[in-house]
Design brief:
Blueprint: H1 3-37, H2 40-49, H3 60-72, H4 81-112, H5 118-136, H6 140-162, H7 171-182, H8 186-208, H9 218-310, H10 315-345, E1 355-358, H11 359-375, E2 380-385, E3 392-395, H12 397-414, E4 420-427, E5 431-437, H13 445-448, H14 469-479, E6 483-488, E7 494-501, E8 526-530, H15 534-546, E9 550-554, H16 557-567, E10 571-575, H17 583-592, E11 601-605, H18 610-619, E12 623-626, H19 631-642
Parallel strand pairs: 2-4, 8-9, 8-10, 10-11, 11-12
Antiparallel strand pairs: 1-3, 4-5, 5-7, 6-7
Helix pairs in contact: 1-9, 4-5, 4-6, 4-9, 5-6, 6-7, 6-8, 7-8, 7-9, 9-10, 9-15, 10-11, 11-12, 12-14, 16-17
């Protein structure tokens, strides 16, 4: 099965796992909802809404309990949770007051010996029964208002009848609390106002005695006072109980939803991480697979460019070769940036490997490469290195090269044809600066703030891109403890400046600089190429022949071991992914053979990830080359090991 197809199937399986995880999220959420509905305040309500009532009672006690439950829950079906809570409070208060009116009203009438007291008591009881009836008939607003008016009317009635004996003013807490608990908005304000008016009327009558309270024997005052006081304390305690229960319900609900939200966030975060990982793996593997055929195309374009330098060929053919080289080089940059983004999203930190760098030779070679690209647009690439810059500095060649590549590619892409791109390097005591200036259409102020965001890009007619070059350049600059800035005005081009710490190296330190595509020969050096791809064998074989090396080929690791023992090469170039015996096993066998273990081995692969590079180096590789192989880098290594 092709590796791309295998990667696609693995990615599809990961996405399927994510969908299954989402199903588990909803299952867990339903379980949480079930836990929430099991709360005592809501459980009976859900039972009523679903027409699931308690089983038939087996005793008179259960019959009474079920009857009271039905009265408390009257009218709550098909209502919101908040409305149901208010209806339950109104029904409970009305039911409780109904019982108080019947029991204590009768008791006071009998103790006082005045049966006239029964009329307002029973009338009040009948009124509170009507409140429950209104809720059952689905008129909760009217029921709540009637209940509040009944309480205030009862307070006025009994306050006037008994005067200071009852202390009904203590009902202010209950009446105000009921208004806050049951009503909302303007209705709450009106009901509190009615309560205040009730207290004022009672106080006025107390001092003016417009209506004279009933009189009774002194020995009955104590009994009546404590009966009425007990009723007031009971209703106040009941309203306080509802407040406590409501707060507990809110806390319980918040706890359940908080736990549910935390679990949902964890699941969504895990799903996002899995999806991001699947996408990153897919991008990395696809880029890896693209590198193998690109190795052949990029190698051919380099060979043609080498021939065009050595031989006089027609100008139109030279232009086509430069176009081919530029297109392949641009494709390689897009792949590198995509891999860099995948590495960033995977949370991997870039590793810094500082080496000595002859900065003038290094930047000149990069500019020579991009001059081929800029020639296709009639753009001149101007390089200026100030005398303030040391001859040799310490820096990470790979990261610095990628920074310069992205900046030059961006500048050539957007500068106007038949103009120039200026690359200037200068330094002060502590820093060195790399400035790239183009003469394009510039960047608007609105886009300057977003120019370093991923996938933000302008439209160019020459080089296509992903919109990743500048964001990755900013990230790589930060890795090197530097910073990047941009200055631009519409119609005046753009200027990007990178500031990096300056660490000069001794002048006598050897440089691992790149070479031009016009390479000096390395005659009579034997190279063994262990590579299973036929096109790569042809391209690499042609390169080694051009620099005077003797080349031998092997199609897999087993054949490579036999050829190595026969040829005894000076250098082995080893592909890491081959049939029969892969690169790691081949390396181990080479290093285990006393006759071959001294031979330098250059591992090569389209796998540009740190773990693959580390595995190859630990197995005995001298160097690691990422496909597509740049001949300048390869020649620099050959020259170092063979000269």
């Amino acid at each position: 099965m092709p590796r791309c197809q295998l990667v696609a199937e693995q990615t599809q399986q990961q996405l399927l796992n994510i969908r299954n995880a989402h199903k588990n999220v909803f299952t867990n959420r339903n379980a949480k909802q079930t836990e929430l509905t099991n709360h005592p305040d809501l459980k009976a309500r859900f039972m009523l809404n679903s027409n699931v009532m308690p089983q038939k009672a087996s005793s008179h006690t259960m019959i009474w309990k079920d009857g009271l439950t039905r009265l408390r829950l009257a009218g709550i079906s098909r209502t919101s949770d908040e409305d149901a809570r208010r209806i339950i409070i109104v029904n409970t208060l009305s039911l409780f007051t109904f019982a108080l009116c019947l029991v204590f009203g009768t008791a006071i009438a009998l103790v006082a010996g005045n049966l006239n007291i029964l009329f307002p008591a029973y009338f009040e009881a009948l009124g509170f029964a009507g409140v429950i009836w209104l809720n059952a008939r689905r008129h909760p607003r009217a029921a709540a208002v009637c209940m509040h008016l009944l309480y205030n009317g009862s307070a006025i009635c009994f306050g006037i009848l008994f005067g200071a004996l009852t202390e009904v003013q203590l009902l202010a807490v209950f009446l105000g609390g009921t208004a806050l608990l049951v009503f909302k908005g303007n209705m709450r304000i009106w009901c509190i106002g009615i309560t205040v008016l009730t207290i004022l009327l009672l106080e006025i009558n107390f001092y003016t005695e417009i209506i004279t309270p009933i009189t009774t024997d002194r020995h009955l005052i104590f009994v009546i006072r404590w009966i009425t006081t007990s009723c007031i304390i009971a209703v106040n305690a009941l309203i306080i109980y509802f407040y406590v229960r409501y707060n507990d319900s809110l806390l319980y609900t918040m706890k359940v939803y908080s736990e549910n939200l935390e679990e949902l966030v964890r699941d969504r975060t895990r799903d996002a991480e899995n999806a991001n990982e699947a996408k990153s793996v897919f991008v990395r593997e696809i880029c890896h697979e693209i590198r193998n055929p690109l190795n052949g195309m990029y190698g051919i374009s380099q060979l043609l460019l080498m021939d065009s330098i050595k031989n006089n060929i027609p100008a139109h053919q030279a232009a086509l070769i430069q176009d081919l080289y530029a297109a392949n080089h641009n494709t390689l940059e897009i792949i590198n940036n995509s891999l860099e983004l995948a590495s960033i999203e995977a949370g991997k930190k870039a590793q810094i490997h500082e080496t000595s760098l002859r900065i003038r030779e290094w930047i000149s070679n990069i500019c020579n490469t991009y001059q081929y690209i800029s020639n296709t647009r009639a753009v001149r690439l101007v390089l200026e290195v100030d005398d303030t810059v040391p001859a040799i500095i310490l820096g990470d060649r790979i990261i610095l090269t990628q920074i310069v590549n992205n900046l030059l590619s961006n500048a050539i892409k957007f500068t106007a044809p038949h103009t120039s791109v200026h690359l200037r390097i200068h330094a002060d005591i502590h820093h060195w600066y790399l400035t790239v200036t183009d003469k394009g259409s510039g960047i608007s102020r609105e886009k300057l703030d977003k120019i370093f965001d991923p996938f933000v890009k302008e439209t160019a007619t020459f080089l296509s891109g992903t919109g990743l070059g500048l964001p990755i350049t900013k990230r790589l600059t930060s890795v090197l403890q530097g910073k990047i800035s941009v200055d631009s005005e519409p119609g005046k081009g753009a200027c990007f400046q990178v500031q990096l710490p300056l660490t000069a190296a001794p002048e006598n330190v050897g440089d691992t600089g790149d070479q031009l595509l016009d390479f000096a020969p390395l005659p009579h050096k034997k190279v063994l190429l262990i590579e299973d791809n036929r096109l790569n064998q042809i391209v690499m074989g042609r390169f080694f022949q051009n620099i005077g090396c003797e080349i031998a080929f092997a199609g897999n690791g087993l054949e490579g071991l036999r050829k190595a023992a026969t040829v005894l090469p000076d250098i082995i170039l080893l592909d890491m992914h081959m049939p029969e015996m892969g690169g790691i096993d081949t390396l181990k066998h080479l290093k285990a053979n006393p006759a071959l273990q001294h031979i330098p081995v250059f591992a090569s692969s389209g796998d540009a990830f740190t773990d693959a590079i580390t595995a190859a180096m630990n197995a005995g590789a001298s160097e690691y080359l990422t496909k597509p192989i740049d001949f300048r880098t390869l020649y620099a290594l050959l020259y170092r090991y063979l000269s």
